[in-house]
Write a structure and sequence with these properties.
Layout lengths: L8 E2 L6 E2 H14 L3 H10 L26 H11 L3 E2 L1 H6 L2 H4 L4 H5 L3 E2 L3 E3 L7 E2 L2 H14 L6 E5 L5 H14 L13 H11 L8 H5 L3 E5 L3 H4 L3 H10 L3 E5 L5 H4 E3 L4 H4 L4 E2 L3 E3 L6 H14 L5 H7 E2 L1 H6 L4 H8 L3 H13 L3 E5 L1 H4 L4 H14 L9 E4 L6 H6 L10 H8 L11 H9 L5 E5 L3 H4 L3 H9 L3 E6 L4 H4 L4 E6 L8 E2 L2 E2 L1 E5 L4 E6 L12 H13 L5 H6 L2 H10 L6 H4 L5 E2 L3 H5 L9 E2 L15 E6 L4 E2 L2 E2 L9 E2 L4 E4 L1 H6 L7 E6 L7 E10 L6 E5 L24 E7 L1 H6 L1
Parallel strand pairs: 2-10, 3-4, 7-16, 8-9, 8-14, 9-12, 13-24, 14-15, 16-17, 17-18, 25-32, 29-31
Antiparallel strand pairs: 1-28, 5-6, 5-18, 10-11, 19-20, 21-22, 22-23, 25-33, 26-27, 29-32, 30-31, 30-33
The structure holds iron/sulfur cluster.
Length: about 750
């Protein structure tokens, strides 16, 4: 394959998000890869009540659906699944693993849908076709041959349906392990930990109506224009209802500034809707200091809800006794006291405040105390369990929250006794490996079988070299996938690809067409019905794959075959085992139902003392030597996690390229660099290992001073495996200390 030369065109960043350009781009993808007929059919069914849930992000659907209930990136996600391109046996015969290893993640993805089960036998450099029966026999045989079930890893990506996730955790636990690492470990684990410890539940406390009716919306460490685009419609509605918006981010993302809603005249021919009323260009990792300062200013001004504090919280005195060091605050945030004071005014004046956040908060060393500081500010004002107020971690993957609710977690779920009773099995109680521990176990030879339910572990994980070497030394790797990606190329000694149906595709079983369910970021559980013909007659559904493996490995003590024939039988079991799912089958009709959330529903807290907890958090500033910079990895607008749809990032002015590093013009000058120059990035950490990522084009950009940004998965090579968030073990991908050197390729060419 002729590789694309990564030499991007660069222009000024955009000041508006979406617009007619968004529609045009979305249609180009939707009608391009799948073809006009298949693409149109898909676009008419995405996020419709009788259609399928968008496999993109976890932003909720409104109760009243429009004809076009999707965004540009939803169209890209569906097009990726509905593509005509096929990675079939002929493709794998033509392209060896050694050759495929030289392809970029974008080029691998363009190969399309994997059409048949494939095996790479030990010593071979090619995948070859295999029957399903033989494939399951290989997996079961390898698992049975392990000395200990804890030498196996059952990884889950957040696209897996509730039904498949419930069976997958049942399989792993009945087999004898809690090794259920998942993508949540790398994204919102810090949110789950901080919220569970302070309000008694690891989920957000707001609904879509709350967003529409908030007085103040604070968007911190999140880029909704790219990662949750239909959130902009909700922000527009909130603005029309009089809301204020405070945006906090090292980068002035277009989706925080102005929204041109292409479904409104104002968005097509007018100026769109101005979003952020105030923007704080906070330094990476400075959010804890920022919210500690806002809390102090609110207390100073007496802008606190004493009645709520007295009645519903504990720990206030210890929290309020903390002395704030403003020098530390201004150093950590890169902001002035005046700028922070403006933000505190907005909190103080708001009758109902929601704080929304994403990865920009959760992938730092101090992410857990940072989120706890946000909880402190909201508790100060009594902003929980009130209309238009609350805490809103916005999830990435479309069902990552549902998977956790279904027990995809390395810690045995609180309903494990019920699970044992329901299936007459005994489940291990020792916590298993989270994602970083799973990588350590593969590196150290303590894990020998890796099974991936969706996702792209090789590219989404930190410390790419270590992760990929760990996968390659496994005796067996199994990838349950839709499209080709790097994890198929980073194969174990024996490797299997088990191609599964996508969420867009009709899933017909013995009892007819099946429905699956998902849970969005606001705890709404709803049905998804595949509507497109499957990409290949050889595909099996996620449920069928897990059930056939369960049967092959464990026999029929658990009725795997019945589960495949009719998914209602799975939901019956879930209804009896998982709290909040009683009457499951009836409640998923129509727009679905919202799971209980005590703080949201009744201002009650399922904590040790039944109160919400203020916390006193120690503030520490990330120490960056003068001639070093702080790097964050991020997505381009043409990407969803490690799936690269295209090579443009139109909101940031990047065209046809990915190896760019965004840097403040003053830092470009201070480091003796020039815009457009090629550089290598080397991360530095206490283990004194130099991790390199090479040949990036310097792009002068209005990013916070001392901070730089580049895309992942390219940047994941710079993230040390053992550099994780305290308390959540999430890789620190948003504040990596780097040095920048002229690119070796350029130096060599001189
Ligand atoms: S906002 Fe998210 S879920 Fe909704 S259509 Fe866009 S990508 Fe899909």
């Amino acid at each position: 394959m002729a590789h694309h030369e990564d030499d991007p065109e660069v222009s000024a960043p955009a000041k508006d998000a979406a617009g007619v350009q968004g529609v045009w781009t979305g249609m180009r993808y939707a009608l391009g890869k799948p073809g006009v007929a298949r693409g149109s059919r898909a676009m008419l069914r995405i996020n419709q009540v009788d259609g399928f849930d968008c496999p993109g992000c976890a932003w909720p659907e409104p109760a009243q659906r429009g004809h076009f209930e999707f965004c540009e990136n939803g169209a890209k996600a569906v097009a990726e699944e509905a593509t005509k391109h096929r990675a079939d046996p002929a493709f794998f015969a033509q392209h060896s693993l050694s050759e495929l290893a030289t392809w970029t993640d974008y080029e691998l993805g363009r190969a399309g849908r994997i059409s048949q089960p494939m095996v790479r036998r030990e010593g071979s450099d090619h995948y070859e076709a295999i029957s399903w029966g033989d494939a399951f026999a290989i997996v079961a045989d390898n698992l049975r041959r392990l000395d200990d079930p804890n030498e196996a890893l059952f990884y889950t990506s957040g696209r897996t349906s509730n039904e498949a996730a419930f069976l997958y955790q049942l399989l792993a636990r009945a087999y004898g392990t809690n090794n259920l690492p998942d993508c949540s470990n790398m994204c919102h684990e810090s949110s789950s930990v901080a919220l569970s410890e302070t309000i008694g539940i690891g989920k957000g406390s707001v609904t879509l109506d709350d967003i529409h009716n908030a007085g103040l919306l604070v968007i911190v460490g999140q880029n909704p224009g790219t990662n949750h685009p239909r959130m902009l419609t909700a922000l527009e509605k909130a603005k029309r209802n009089g809301a204020q918006i405070l945006a906090i981010n090292p980068m002035p993302e277009a989706g925080l500034l102005n929204f041109k809603n292409p479904q409104t005249p104002r968005g097509v021919i007018g100026g769109g809707t101005h979003l952020a009323d105030a923007f704080l260009p906070v330094r990476m990792g400075g959010d804890q200091a920022l919210f500690a300062a806002i809390g102090a200013l609110l207390r100073e001004r007496g802008a606190v809800d004493h009645e709520f504090i007295a009645h519903s919280t504990t720990g206030y005195d210890e929290y309020a006794a903390g002395q704030l060091d403003w020098d530390q605050v201004t150093k950590a945030t890169g902001l002035t006291r005046e700028e922070i004071s403006v933000a505190a005014d907005m909190f103080a004046d708001s009758p109902a405040t929601i704080v929304c956040w994403a990865m920009g908060l959760t992938q730092h060393r101090d992410s857990v105390p940072t989120i706890k500081e946000i909880v402190n500010v909201q508790l100060l004002r009594g902003m929980i369990g009130l209309p238009g107020a609350g805490l809103c971690p916005v999830r990435g993957h479309s069902n990552v929250q549902g998977d956790r609710t279904m027990g995809i977690w390395e810690v045995p779920p609180p309903w494990t006794d019920a699970l044992e009773r329901e299936f007459d099995i005994s489940v291990p109680r020792e916590p298993g490996f989270h994602t970083v521990d799973a990588i350590r176990a593969m590196r150290d030879g303590r894990a020998k079988v890796f099974i991936g339910m969706g996702g792209n572990f090789a590219s989404s994980s930190p410390d790419s070299e270590v992760t990929q070497a760990g996968l390659q030394q496994c005796e067996l790797t199994v990838q349950i996938s839709t499209t080709l990606n790097r994890s198929h190329v980073t194969a174990g000694r024996t490797a299997l690809i088990l191609p599964t149906k996508g969420r867009t595709e009709r899933d017909t079983q013995a009892a007819g067409d099946q429905v699956v369910t998902v849970e969005d970021s606001m705890s709404c559980v709803h049905a998804s019905r595949g509507r497109l013909e499957p990409a290949s007659p050889f595909l099996l559904s996620e449920v069928a794959i897990v059930s056939r493996l369960g049967h092959e490995l464990l026999g029929d003590h658990i009725p795997w075959r019945i589960f495949t024939e009719d998914y209602r039988s799975i939901r019956e079991r879930i209804a009896r085992v998982v709290p909040g799912f009683a009457d499951y089958e009836r409640r998923i009709r129509g727009i679905g139902f919202t799971l209980p959330h005590p703080p949201r529903d009744t201002r009650s807290f399922d904590t040790t003392d039944g109160k919400a907890h203020f916390t006193a958090n120690t503030l520490s500033v990330i120490d960056v030597p003068d001639d070093r910079l702080l790097l964050q990895s991020l997505r381009s607008h043409d990407q969803y996690n490690t799936t690269i749809y295209g090579l443009d990032d139109r909101y940031r002015g990047i065209k046809q390229g990915r190896r760019v590093v965004f840097m403040h013009p003053d830092d470009v000058a201070a480091h003796g660099l020039t815009d457009g120059q090629r550089v290598d990035l080397i991360s530095e950490w206490k283990d004194r290992v130099d991790r390199r990522a090479e040949n990036f084009r310097v792009v002068s950009y209005p990013i916070a001073r001392g901070c730089v940004a580049t895309y992942f998965p390219e940047a994941n090579a710079l993230v040390p495996l053992d550099h994780t968030a305290k308390g959540s073990h999430t890789p620190v991908s948003k504040s990596v200390v780097v040095r920048v050197e002229p690119a070796a390729v350029e130096v060599a060419a001189r």
